[in-house]
Write a structure and sequence with these properties.
Helix content is 18%, strand content 22%. The strands form 10 sheets. Strands 12-13-14-16-15 form a 5-stranded antiparallel beta sheet. The protein has a 4-stranded antiparallel beta sheet with strand order 7-35-34-33, with no helix packed on it. Strands 8-9-10-11 form a 4-stranded antiparallel beta sheet, with no helix packed on it. Strand 10 and strand 11 form a beta hairpin. Pfam families: BOP1NT, WD40. Component of the NOP7 complex, composed of ERB1, NOP7 and YTM1. Within the NOP7 complex ERB1 appears to interact directly with NOP7 and YTM1. The NOP7 complex also associates with the 66S pre-ribosome. Residues 1-11 have a biased composition (Basic residues).
Length: 807
């Protein structure tokens, strides 16, 4: 031992206790073969002994003596906090030699009787003798002379003598058979179909495929009698099992039969498995000299920093002397004050609004804003050209990524001042208010519409088709009784049909195209108004009505000629009598206008009717009185091109539809009541609800708008069900139904219920689409729809020269 190393101080207060040692255990013999076949022998119990060193240090002997005798005095004066032996520096420069240490160890061995009692030594020796006798008897049974290595126990590292009898035992293994087919991993499986259900091949003559991809044909199988005879002839048939994948019977081996027997008996299939093996102690109760522990260092080992201690003491002295005043509880640092440079008066701080939201922060720069961006961020020439061609508002970014060799080569950003100015404008002019988010179920916003079956009756199928016109049928009308149907078209004829049978009862030939027909709503007067070219004709079909009604209608229509001299004539319209041939046809009165007439409509009483001539400018709308043969112009100046007009069903109201607006006038007060903002580009048709509180319009831009006159001047509902321009819309006089037709050839039927309760909105439900009601001719489909006055029947006309009734 070198003199530089510290020595351990030996205490001579008490002799060191003797160490208890055991002899080294013998090698365990091989297990005997089990007497019973198929039963695995239990493995021998392994007994391990931890050998102890014969020579120990004085410190270890002292620790054992302290543990056994409980000498508290020794513990107090012995180890340090870490449980290590106390070390002392060298005394007088002398070292303890190895001879001194050996003498100390011998003294500790000689005093074993002092440390251990007789009873402990005797019992320990008796146990060791019994173990040795049992082991010797086991060695005789388990070992054979030819299996024992004569050189067992020799140190293999030492070289052998020249003339040595050392003969190592060589274990002989069975010879390797090159044609080895017992391993299931190397055996060839004929059927390589894979993990596929075999019932897939029930309808095929093959059962799978081999390695080469060829089909494996299904082997021939006999009936139940053949199976029975085969079991009688073959005594080993009960040892076979059927392989469904190969379609063959496979004989089971004795090992497989043994596994089946053990499974039937509820035992473990592996015969060599022992569930009752002795447990192995993987963890020992003895404390290791160098334990593997990740426990944190104890606080007693912490060494404080002297430099930090000096700094802390400096602060503590300053606090004691009053040079540093600590903050009191509840201290709030003062807020910085800002002053308005542009106002001399003192500004009072304004509290922020409760719903105020701070302005969002600017986004952090990305890679493409770097002065040396990666190559994938640099734009190509095409991208640069495309960026330059865009307007400033449409550019996704205000800059293009550029690459510079160093930061000093980066020029100044020319848009810096502009962007800061826009940022200030955004912060100053953009109001930000917090809005509470509403958690609304989207399904609750969808109205729950009733089933169409609950909304019957409505027309669903074609009942009657009226054929006879040679051109487009532009207008149809049903008389108040519901018996007669009038129609006019491009073939310059007006035809009257019997609604129930579809027969054409009368035909009137005119000089111009017929644009509109309308029956008088008065049942006591059977008059049909017809527009063709620049004139309006009043027709009396005498053959269709009774003589009394025909005479009354004749007097009603021609009574105005007696007042021609007494009233002032209007230059915009001239009342004339027909010729003899026209009178014979049934035409009673002609009203000549300055421009072509497009529409005629009746007042509910049957004495007034209005005409529309869009090209007549201010005189586009004229109202005519039949009994006095007078014509008056209600508007001195019209706002826009008039498309349609209609009388209110119960009030002295008059509706005028221009291209984009619908205006409601009071004829009594002669004033404008309301202007409906339709939001469409061109109005094509108009109709008023029988109750007078709602109206619908159709437009050439495929939209149908429902207006609630008591609710708003904007549409209550806008329906877009047609794919082409809407030509006509109509309400039913009794049932809550309305319909529309368009150039797509379809007719849409809707349920429109209007409630008497003003707080309840109208119910609008689409119930039926009469697809391809009329064929399209030159991109024109259905032109007009009309409801039967008493029945839920719908009549439509189109460009295919036909009229159809749906019931």
């Amino acid at each position: 031992m070198s003199s530089s190393q510290p020595k351990k101080r030996v205490s001579a207060a008490k002799p060191a206790p003797k160490q208890l040692t055991k002899p080294a255990p013998k090698a365990m013999p091989a297990p005997k073969a089990s007497a019973k076949k198929g039963v695995a022998p239990s493995p021998p119990t392994k007994v391990t002994h931890t050998p102890k060193s014969k020579k120990r240090t004085v410190q270890e002997a002292q620790e054992e003596s302290d543990d056994e005798f409980g000498n508290e005095d020794m513990e107090d004066s012995g180890d340090s906090d870490d449980g290590e032996a106390e070390e002392f520096p060298e005394e007088d420069g002398q070292d303890m030699s190895s001879a001194d240490l050996d003498s100390v160890d011998e003294e500790a061995e000689s005093d074993e009787s002092y440390m251990d009692g007789d009873s402990l030594v005797d019992s320990q020796e008796e146990l060791e003798d019994e173990d040795e006798e049992e082991e010797e008897s086991d060695d005789e049974d388990f070992f054979k002379e030819d299996e024992i290595d004569p050189n067992f126990g020799r140190n293999l590292d030492e070289p052998l003598p020249e003339e040595s009898d050392y003969k190592p035992i060589r274990r002989e293994y069975p010879e390797i058979d090159p044609v080895y087919d017992s391993d299931s991993s190397t055996e060839e499986n004929e059927n390589t179909v894979g993990d596929v259900p075999m019932h897939w091949y029930d309808d095929y003559p093959h059962i799978g495929y081999d390695v080469d991809g060829k089909k494996i044909m299904r082997p021939a199988t006999g009936d139940e009698l053949d199976k029975f005879l085969s079991t009688v002839d073959d005594p080993d048939s009960w040892l076979s099992a059927h392989n469904y994948k190969d379609g063959k019977d496979v004989k089971l081996s004795s090992e497989e039969l043994e596994i089946i027997r053990r499974l039937e008996g509820g035992r473990i299939p592996d015969a060599d498995y022992n569930p009752y093996e002795d447990s192995v102690d993987f963890f020992t109760s003895q404390t290791e000299v160098m334990p593997l522990s990740a426990a944190p260092e104890p606080k007693r080992r912490f060494i404080p920093s002297k430099h930090e201690a000096k700094r802390i003491m400096k602060i503590v002295r300053a606090i004691r002397e009053g040079r540093i005043v600590p903050r009191k509880s509840g201290y709030v640092p003062p807020k910085p004050k800002y002053y308005n440079l542009w106002n001399d008066a003192e500004d009072k701080p304004r509290e922020e609004h409760v719903m105020h939201i701070t302005a969002p922060k600017m986004k952090l720069p990305t890679h493409d804003e770097s002065y040396n961006p990666p190559a994938e961020y640099l734009p190509t020439e095409e991208e640069i050209k495309e960026w330059n061609d865009l307007d400033k508002e449409d550019r996704p970014k205000n800059y293009l990524p550029q690459k510079f060799g160093s930061l000093r080569n980066v020029p100044g950003y020319n848009q810096f001042v502009q962007e800061r100015f826009e940022r200030c404008l955004d912060l100053y002019l953009a109001p930000r208010v917090r809005k509470n988010r509403l958690n609304i179920d989207p399904d609750s916003l969808i109205p729950k519409l009733p089933s169409p079956r609950d909304l019957q009756p409505f027309p669903t199928r074609l009942a009657i088709e009226y054929l006879g016109h040679q051109g487009r049928v532009r207008s149809i009308s049903i008389d108040p009784t519901g018996l007669w149907l009038a129609s006019g078209g491009d073939d310059k004829t007006v035809r009257v049909w019997e609604v129930a049978t579809g027969r054409c009862m009368a035909t009137y030939h005119l000089d111009e195209l017929v644009t509109s027909v309308a029956w008088s709503p008065n049942k006591d007067v059977a008059v049909l108004a017809v527009t063709c070219g620049y004139k309006v004709g009043l027709i009396l079909p005498e053959k269709l009505f009774s003589p009394e009604l025909a005479i009354h209608s004749e007097d009603f229509v021609r009574a105005g000629f007696a007042n021609v001299g007494t009233t002032e004539a209007n230059a915009k319209a001239t009342w004339k009598q027909p010729t003899e041939s026209e009178y014979a046809q049934g035409i009673r009165v002609w009203v000549h206008l300055l421009k072509p007439v497009k529409q005629v409509t009746w007042h509910r009483k049957g004495d007034y009717f209005a005409t529309v001539a869009p090209d007549a400018n201010n005189s586009a709308v004229l109202i005519h009185q039949l009994t006095k043969h007078q014509t008056q112009q209600p508007f001195k100046k019209t706002k826009g091109a008039v498309q349609r007009v209609a009388f209110h069903p119960s009030k002295p109201m008059f509706f005028v539809a221009t291209q984009r607006y619908v205006r409601q006038y009071n004829l009594q007060r002669q004033e404008l009541v309301k202007t409906m903002l339709t939001g469409v580009k061109w109005i094509s048709s108009l109709d008023i609800h029988p109750a007078g509180d709602n109206l619908i319009i159709g437009s050439y831009d495929k939209r149908l708008c429902w207006f609630d006159l008591d609710l708003s001047s904007k549409p209550y509902k806008t329906l877009r069900f047609h794919s082409e321009a809407i030509r006509s819309v109509a309400y039913h006089k009794r049932y809550p139904l309305f319909a529309s037709c368009a150039d797509d050839g379809n007719v849409q039927v809707f349920h429109g219920m209007v409630y008497n309760d003003l707080l309840q909105n109208p119910l609008i439900v689409p119930v039926k689409i009469l697809k391809n009601a009329h064929e399209r001719v030159d991109s024109i489909g259905a032109l007009c729809v009309e409801w039967h006055p008493t029945q839920p029947w719908l009549v439509s006309s189109g460009a295919d020269h036909s009229i159809k009734l749906f019931s």
